[in-house]
C-alpha cells in the first residue's frame, strides 16, 4: 500500500497534476470564502473545466476544490462573523469572538491548522479503510447491493431535517427520474411521454447541476437588494501574523479533542448525503460536552475552533471513502465527482481501487497534497479573500449559471441536457420552497439505475424473494434500513412533541 | 384551505398515478421473468402511497402563518431571473453561444442590479463581453469543448 501511495505522490507532484490540484484548491478556498457560494456550487462550476483533462488531472482539481472549500469558509467566519460555507457556521461561535477580542491572527491560524490536521487524520482513514471496505463489498451479490442502496436512501431520507415523509417521497421522486428512458433488461423505451430527449433516459449530472445550482442561486436572489450587514467585521488592516509553532502546539497539545472530532467528522462523512455542516456542529457539541470549561465555549475558546474546523475537513476523507469503496456519494460534492468519473468512463464502486489502482492512489496523493497547498494559499491570500467577498452577486450569478449550461451541454454536446438542467432547476427551486429535501432526491437519481439493475439481477438469478432477508448481509442491511426509518420517525415525533410543548407554554 | 404540502403532495400523487397507468402499456417479454414495467410499478406505487400520506398530513396539520423569513421575499425577481434564463436556453440554438451568452449575462445583471445610468449599462455590457470571451476561449480553444453555433446567424 505504501509503495502505491508513494508512487501516487510522485505522480501527482508532476506539474501536469500539481497545477490543476493547486488551481482547484485555490478556487475551492475562494468559493468557500464567498458567503452564499457553497462547495457544491464551486465544484459544479469547476466540473466543465475538467472535461478536457485526463481523469487524474480532473479528479485532482476536484479534490483540491473539496479540501480548499472545506477550509475556505473559515476566513470570513473568523474575520467577518459570516460563515463562507455552512460547514463553517460552528467556527463563527468561537473564531469570531476570539478575533474581536484582538486576536484575529490566532483565531484564523488555529482554524487553518486544525483544518490541516483534521484533514490529514481523515486522509489516514481514507487510505487505510477504502481498500478493506472495497474488498468486503466485492463479496456482495445483487441482493446485498440492492439492500445497501436501499439502506443509503432510507438513511438519507430519515436524517434530513425536513419531515420523514417528505424525505422518503423526495428519494422516490429521484427514483422516478431513473425509470424514464430505457429499460435496462430489454433496452426498450419506457415512460418517455413522447418527449424526444427522454428517449435515452435522463443523465444525472444535468439533474444534479440544475437542482443544486438553481435551488441555491434562486434562494439568494429572493433576498437580493438588502444591505449586507458587515458592521461586525474585523478591521481589514488588522495584523494576522502569529507564531505558527505556538498555534500548532495549541492544537496538538489537545490530542484527545483533535482525534475525537476528526472521528466524528469521518463518521458523518461516511454516512451518505450528510455534509460538513452536520459534522462541525456535532463535533462542536461533543467538544463542549467533554470540555472541563464548557462555559468558555462561545467566548473565543480555541477548542471550539479546533472542533469545528478539524471535523469538517476530516469529513472530506469520510465522504471520499464511500464513493471509492461502494460508489455511493457521501454528499453533493462527491456526487459531482462521481459524475466526473462516469464522464471519463470509470465506474466507481468496489472494483474501482483494483481496476484503477494508479488513479485511486493518485486521488489519495492529491488529497494529502491539497492540505499543505491549502495552508500556503491561505497564508498568502487570507486578507485578499476578504476583498473577494465584495464581488457583487448580480455579476457572479449569471456567470455561474452560464458555466452550469456549459457543463450540461458539454456532457455530450446536445441541447437536451440543457433543457434537463432548466426543468430540474425549476423543480429544485419548487422543492426548496415546498420543504422537500434535495439530498434524498439526488441520491435517488444516482442510485436508481443500480437499485433496479440489482433487483432484476437477483430475481433473474433466483426468483425467491425471501433471499433478500435470509442472506445474512442483505437481511442485516434491510433491517438497518427499517431501523433507520423507525429511529427517524421516533426522533421526528420527539421533536414535534417538544415543539408542541413549547407552543403550549407560550399560550399561557 | 390546504397548505403548500398538500398541494405538492397532490401534484406528486397525480403524476405518479398517471405514470403508473402508463406502465400497463409496457409489454412483457415471455423470455424474461421481469418485464420493463415491474420496477417502475413498485417505485410509482410507493410514491403514490407516500404522496397520499403527505396530502393527508397537509390537510390534518394546522396551517401556520408565514414566518417572518417568508415575508419580503422577492418572488418577482426570482420569476424574472428564471424567465431570462429560459429565454437564454431557448435562444442558444438559434443565436449561438457567443451572442446568446453576451445578451444573457448583460440582461441578468440588469435584472438583478438595475442600471441607473449609461455608466451602469456600460459596466453590465463590459462584464458580459469579458465573461463571454473568457468562457468561450477557455472551453473552445483550451479544453476542446465545442459550444453551440447559431442556426440563424451561423456564429
Written account of the structure:
- The complex is a heterodimer of chains A (508) and B (155).
- The N and C termini of chain A lie far apart (65 Å).
- In chain A, β1 (181-182) and β2 (189-190) form a beta hairpin.
- Helices cover 73% and strands 1% of the residues of chain A.
- In chain A, strands 1-2 form a two-stranded antiparallel sheet.
- Chain A is globular and about 65 Å long.
- Chain A has 508 residues and is mostly helical.
- Residues 226-231 of chain A have low confidence and may be disordered.
- Chain A has one domain (2-228, 255-507).
- By secondary structure, chain B is an all-alpha fold.
- Chain B folds into 2 domains: 4-64; 74-142, no CATH class.
- Chain B is 68% helix and 0% strand.
- Chain B contains 4 helices and no strands.
- Chain B has helices spanning 4-22, 38-60, 75-112, 118-142.
- The longest helix of chain B has 38 residues, at 75-112.
- The radius of gyration of chain B is 24 Å and the shape is flat.
- Chain B starts with a helix and ends in a 13-residue tail after the last helix.
- The mean pLDDT of chain B is 88.
Spell out the key features of this protein.
heterodimer, A: 508 residues, two-stranded antiparallel sheet, 21 helices, 2 strands, globular, B: 155 residues, 2 domains
Amino acid at each position: 500500500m505504501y509503495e502505491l501511495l508513494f508512487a501516487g505522490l510522485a505522480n501527482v507532484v508532476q506539474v501536469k497534476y500539481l497545477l490543476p490540484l493547486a488551481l482547484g484548491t485555490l478556487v475551492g478556498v475562494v468559493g468557500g470564502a464567498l458567503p452564499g457560494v457553497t462547495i457544491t456550487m464551486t465544484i459544479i462550476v469547476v466540473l466543465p473545466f475538467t472535461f478536457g483533462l485526463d481523469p487524474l488531472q480532473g479528479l485532482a482539481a476536484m479534490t483540491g476544490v473539496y479540501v480548499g472549500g472545506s477550509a475556505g469558509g473559515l476566513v470570513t467566519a473568523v474575520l467577518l462573523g459570516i460563515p463562507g460555507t455552512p460547514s463553517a457556521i460552528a467556527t463563527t461561535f468561537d473564531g469570531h469572538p476570539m478575533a474581536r477580542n484582538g486576536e484575529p491572527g490566532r483565531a484564523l491560524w488555529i482554524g487553518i491548522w486544525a483544518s490541516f490536521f483534521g484533514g490529514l487524520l481523515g486522509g489516514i482513514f481514507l487510505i487505510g479503510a477504502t481498500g478493506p471496505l472495497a474488498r468486503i463489498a466485492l463479496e456482495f451479490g445483487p441482493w446485498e447491493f440492492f439492500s445497501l442502496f436501499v439502506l443509503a436512501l432510507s438513511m438519507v431520507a430519515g436524517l434530513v431535517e425536513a419531515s420523514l415523509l417528505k424525505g422518503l417521497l423526495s428519494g422516490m421522486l429521484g427514483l422516478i427520474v431513473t425509470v424514464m428512458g430505457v429499460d435496462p433488461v430489454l433496452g426498450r423505451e419506457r415512460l418517455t411521454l413522447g418527449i424526444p430527449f427522454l428517449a435515452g433516459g435522463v443523465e444525472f449530472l444535468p439533474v444534479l447541476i440544475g437542482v443544486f445550482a438553481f435551488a441555491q442561486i434562486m434562494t439568494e436572489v429572493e433576498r437580493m437588494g438588502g444591505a449586507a450587514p458587515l458592521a461586525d467585521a474585523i478591521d481589514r488592516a488588522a495584523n494576522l501574523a502569529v507564531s505558527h509553532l505556538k498555534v500548532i502546539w495549541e492544537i496538538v497539545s489537545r490530542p484527545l479533542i483533535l482525534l475525537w472530532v476528526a472521528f466524528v467528522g469521518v463518521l458523518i462523512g461516511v454516512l451518505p448525503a450528510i455534509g460538513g455542516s452536520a459534522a462541525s456542529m456535532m463535533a462542536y457539541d461533543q467538544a463542549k460536552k467533554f470540555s472541563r470549561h464548557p462555559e468558555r465555549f462561545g467566548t473565543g475558546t480555541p477548542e471550539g475552533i479546533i472542533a469545528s474546523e478539524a471535523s469538517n475537513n476530516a469529513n472530506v476523507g469520510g465522504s471520499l471513502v464511500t464513493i471509492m469503496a461502494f460508489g455511493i456519494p457521501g454528499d453533493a460534492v462527491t456526487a459531482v465527482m462521481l459524475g466526473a468519473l462516469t464522464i471519463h468512463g470509470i465506474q466507481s464502486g468496489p472494483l474501482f481501487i483494483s481496476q484503477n489502482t494508479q488513479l485511486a492512489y493518485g486521488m489519495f496523493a492529491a488529497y494529502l497534497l491539497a492540505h499543505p497547498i491549502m495552508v500556503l494559499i491561505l497564508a498568502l491570500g487570507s486578507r485578499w479573500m476578504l476583498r473577494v467577498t465584495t464581488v457583487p452577486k448580480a455579476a457572479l450569478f449569471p456567470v455561474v449559471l452560464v458555466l452550469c449550461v456549459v457543463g450540461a451541454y458539454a456532457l455530450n454536446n446536445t441541447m437536451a441536457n440543457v433543457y434537463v438542467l432548466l426543468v430540474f432547476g425549476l423543480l429544485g427551486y419548487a422543492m426548496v420552497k415546498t420543504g422537500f429535501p434535495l439530498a434524498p432526491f439526488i441520491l435517488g437519481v444516482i442510485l436508481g439505475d443500480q437499485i433496479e439493475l440489482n433487483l432484476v439481477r437477483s430475481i433473474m438469478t433466483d426468483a425467491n424473494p425471501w433471499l433478500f432477508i435470509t442472506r445474512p448481509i442483505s437481511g442485516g442491511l434491510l433491517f438497518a434500513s427499517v431501523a433507520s426509518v423507525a429511529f427517524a420517525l421516533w426522533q421526528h415525533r420527539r421533536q414535534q412533541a417538544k415543539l408542541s410543548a413549547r407552543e403550549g407554554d407560550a399560550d399561557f | 384551505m390546504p397548505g403548500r404540502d398538500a398541494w405538492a403532495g397532490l401534484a406528486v400523487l397525480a403524476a405518479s398515478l398517471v405514470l403508473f397507468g402508463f406502465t400497463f402499456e409496457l409489454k412483457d417479454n415471455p423470455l424474461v421473468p421481469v418485464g420493463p414495467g415491474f420496477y417502475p410499478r413498485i417505485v410509482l406505487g410507493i410514491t403514490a402511497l407516500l404522496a397520499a400520506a403527505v396530502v393527508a398530513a397537509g390537510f390534518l396539520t394546522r396551517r401556520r402563518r408565514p414566518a417572518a423569513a417568508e415575508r419580503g421575499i422577492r418572488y418577482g425577481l426570482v420569476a424574472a431571473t428564471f424567465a431570462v434564463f429560459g429565454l437564454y436556453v431557448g435562444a442558444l440554438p438559434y443565436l449561438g453561444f457567443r451572442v446568446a451568452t453576451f445578451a444573457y449575462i448583460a440582461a441578468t445583471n440588469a435584472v438583478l442590479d438595475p442600471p441607473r445610468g449609461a455608466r451602469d449599462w456600460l459596466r453590465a455590457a463590459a462584464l458580459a463581453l469579458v465573461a463571454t470571451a473568457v468562457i468561450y476561449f477557455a472551453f473552445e480553444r483550451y479544453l476542446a469543448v465545442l459550444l453551440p453555433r447559431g442556426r440563424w446567424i451561423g456564429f
